[in-house]
């Protein structure tokens, strides 16, 4: 724990009823309520005061639900674009960068903004908690949580599809407190979530909670806090690729807090979120004007996942319809759901490298391609204040500069295992 830190003072609020209550332990839902709804952290400090660059992500601790801080974090970095902006003819493009780029002050060694989630979620955990944290992931989230838990001796079970485990690379061997359970070849992110749900029904295992965990969302929301405190005002547009949409929900919530802060204007950013076609369940629901997700055949979904470059964007059950979820965020912000193809994203990736000087992930390239598409279609004012959320970058450079170590599976499961099998296999693992 960083010296001089005191736990953040906050309460929780149901977005279904408005009820405010204490965070007694590891709360993911409002007590006594049946309607599916997110809960939100209400922080004692209405104005954000930065703690300093040397505290990493925890410079934003006023608006993170923390019981402790952990060493080794890095905050997102925001800068005004010159190269990409000039290439696109944009006058006020700001890039919020999460990844590895030492010259910019970006030190996320997993190269992904998922570190913002991991340092916040693990900071919310009571150090005395004697349970194994369970996290489902398509790669980037797993890598981030593995790093943080390994370095801080937090027992962790990762549930990851077998075809994605080559994403579990690290700069050093991991602490044995981190274990990997994989679903069979041909499975996807949804199958990993299914496995994680079974694991959390076993004694001693704790669900991280995904979008329902206020620490995950508020950690991701630091991208917007970085942007606004750097720019000095709230942008007009926010571009990000989405799989679950949790990052966009987080951006919206951070936006609302910044309005209440009173120093950055009253603007609500238009959330411009994008998917990697043909995997586009959020796009399809939004364009149909539907709050509910549309039917999506499991086999067709898995086929579409195999076709897209950005596997991390393949969530089939996103927090879109839930009260306080992505649908509400898009409606309140006046945003839109976009899509981009592999071809468009690859071109955007090359353009970013050429103009900004660093490699970016396929997901970030989807966001960049969507920005290009909107501009080319004449739907963006070149003078507009735009935030482009580059959610992962610098991996190619990091791999060139470091030796890598890969996490090997501890447990193997079929695509849809039974609860008894999961319970039995978990008893064979020692943390």
Commentary on this structure:
The longest helix has 16 residues, at 246-261. The protein starts with 9 loop residues before the first strand and ends in a 5-residue tail after the last helix. The protein has helices at 83-88, 114-124, 140-152, 189-199, 214-220, 222-231, 246-261, 281-287, 298-307, 326-333, 342-356, 362-376, 395-401, 419-426; strands at 10-14, 20-21, 39-43, 77-80, 93-97, 100-101, 106-107, 132-136, 156-161, 169-170, 178-183, 205-207, 237-241, 270-276, 336-340, 386-390, 405-406, 411-413. It has a domain at 77-111 and 216-398: Rossmann fold, CATH 3.40.50.1100. It is built from 14 helices and 18 strands. The protein is globular and about 60 Å long. The protein is of the alpha/beta class and 431 residues long. Helix 2 crosses helix 3 (140-152) and helix 11 crosses helix 12 (362-376).
